[in-house]
Amino acid sequence: MDLNDSTSLAELMSRYMSTETGFGVPKDGWRICLAHEFKEKRKPFQAKDVSLSNMIEHVSLGVRYLRWWYRKTQVEKKAPFIDMFRALPLRQIYGAPLGGIGGGSITRGWRGDFCRWQLNPGMYHYKTVIANQFTVCLRRGGQTVYQQVLSTERPPTLQGWNWGYCGEYAFYHALYPRAWTVYHLPGQNVTLTCRQVSPVIPHDYKDSSLPVAVFVWDIENKNDYALDVSIMFTMVNGSGHKDDKSGGHWNEPFHLEKDGESVSGVLLHHQTPVNPYTLCIAAREKSGQEISHQTAFSPKGTCSALWIDLMTDGRLDSPKDSTLAVSCSVPANSHNSVEFSLAWDMPKITFGSRERIYERRYTRYYGTKRDAAPSLSHYSLTHYSKWEERIDEWQRPILKDGSLPAWYKSALFNELYFVVDGGTVWVELPEDADISGGLRPEDGGLPAQPEVVKEYGRFAYLEGQEYRMYNTYDVHFYASFALIMLWPKLALSVQYDIAGSVVQHDPTERLNLMNGRYSPVKTWGVVPHDIGDPDDEPWVRANAYLIHDTADWKDLNLKFVLQVYRDYYLTQDEQYLKDMWPICQTVMETELKFDKDGDGLIENSGYADQTYDGWKVTGPSAYCGGLWLASVCMVCKMARVLNCESVYQRYRDILDRGRAAFDKLLWNGKYYNYDSSGQSLSNSVMSDQCAGQWFLRASGLGDDDYQAFPKEKICSALKSVFDLNVMSFAGGQMGAVNGMRPEGVPDRSSVQSDEVWVGVVYGLAATMIHEGMTEEGMRTAEGCYRAVWERMGMAFQTPEAYCEKGIYRSLAYMRPLSIWAMQLALNNRPNHGKTTDKDVGQD
């Protein structure tokens, strides 16, 4: 199949029976008929998927992990940071998440279900609350002619409602942060379009923090007579979690008038002992429309009273039910619209250990008293049109670019879901906080409260919904392009947090599960793996990851240096560069100890000591060696910018020697070998072998004095990767496999070498584009997008990894945000037009 023929996309809509296209639905995005069923059913990676040789090699790891898992789950009653025994099963149901950044998230599936909840910070709850629905009622001449729950489900509860909407007459369309669901009502000549809007707006640090979403219902009446139409929104107090039954929850109506605009709705106060919150459903009052509500909705039994109540006159009168309905008249062959909002107010949060209290970012504007839901609802309903104008302004240049294929436009914006739905927290910096790690600027450290952190707060997102560690740094290296290009102040805030952690030391000894040895939790002078587990105390106890001692990893320190200069290049923030410079020198000094033979090139230590933490590497390697040379290049550049000539000369000498060693030890005439160990698989072709060059190009370097790799060798290596890892794998339709043998079969020496890592593929594609191989780069990335979004049914839960057949690993993962590196590379193409400040990260 030619990837460009959109066969798989057409299949997503093949069961759609209507010709209706909806009201204002854009051309570009991810579109699927509500009746679609994915043919491919994958399963999560499990122990049985490990080869016999790998299983034998890792028996001791398995035993240590089992003991640790038992103590964590059965004794401590905590959730493991990675649960290898209870991987998430694939549910092919998710759609665009609701809400802004860092205030918690609620995901609404593409069939309309409220089905994924992250209100407690970083802790996910996967439960479809079936009573949370929209229902339509059509009336003509005072009589109800049609009433339907807009859901294809037929649940065993609430049987007094009319379920089972025919999904063949509806489709879902996502172009994040908006989504549209189009319902053609069979036999009624009426089409409803529900537009879902969340305030995710680049370079905005106020509205983008708000925990709200708006649902605009556009009603098209194509009959030659008028209709009265009611849309009812039902919402249960809770998320389907066991604490819903704990008691003490209560609801109340509200009405708020401000600046000549009024909203009405229902507040659902959820009184949990930890992190209580208030849900709020509301509607905007408009001339000619009527809002009716009830405040005690109980989804038990048949609930026929509510159904009959709405059917009687299109409004709600029953005192027993909690819901909201908006009624309006739609003239013949005309259109009308109604507007709802959903808000949630959890202003103060604690993490799992409950040692500290944090205030979410939006409380800067709405306070911490948990009384903000009416104001949030009013603001969202009266300002969402301005959000949409700004979203259009941001997306339009890309959507209008005829040189970009449709799949890419969908991938670029829809993969951004993870910025909100990555267990994300965005909190204010407490007044007594000191992020410096105790080392002050005069001693080579940081200010206690850097201005950017004080003004823009602290930001954290999970490595993945299943890999529960905040700001996992080896992965953030890839994902960070989305932040630095769209919310650069948050990217810099993360960097300050990491920099402060570098100079911290936690001498507590703990067992490393891989090798069975003990080591300190955090070693001074090295970049942490992560800033902590949300079920513990992030920002206080770093390094929730305990499989390896990451103080000995070869990539973390380098990825810090590479991001520092890239961020400076894109933001031109001189104070940031000055603040980071001593920390860069510290981590480079630490890294130099890995150059055992003094040839200017670091060596790996014979185990999986980098982001590919299941793939052994020995001696100088393409991946870590390349990152090292790129980092040395950037230190030279930073030294010149900051007029540190002695540092420049020192690292210039290292660069000259290191380049020669890298070529001598790793170049084989076509590409860089995986490593220089001389073992049977050391000449495998690694898809990520040019990661160092990628960051050099993204930072405006890679030529003349700041060249680490000859251009002709980079292009040859990328061509080898394209020919072997991409086109010789799965018919060229699934992206690039991590490791490929030169004879054209995947490297199966580890559990990771024969996987495809989606975020790595997007980074590889960006590298190809930087080097003028745009067609190859787009083809490489397209395979991943079509596999994940169109064939495997993993929309809005892009995994870390999948194999050619059968399995995937770690759903809803951070790394695929690296697709924004492709956009940066595309912006920098010759003759593309001048890149604006806002394209590349300046506010």
TrEMBL record:
Belongs to the non-lysosomal glucosylceramidase family. This is Non-lysosomal glucosylceramidase. Its main location: endoplasmic reticulum. SUPFAM superfamilies: Six-hairpin glycosidases. Keywords: Cholesterol metabolism, Endoplasmic reticulum, Glycosidase, Glycosyltransferase, Golgi apparatus, Hydrolase, Lipid metabolism, Membrane, Sphingolipid metabolism, Steroid metabolism, Sterol metabolism, Transferase. Non-lysosomal glucosylceramidase that catalyzes the hydrolysis of glucosylceramide (GlcCer) to free glucose and ceramide. GO terms for molecular function: beta-glucosidase activity; galactosylceramidase activity; glucosylceramidase activity; glycosyltransferase activity. One of its GO terms (cellular component) is Golgi membrane. Gene3D superfamilies: 1.50.10.10.
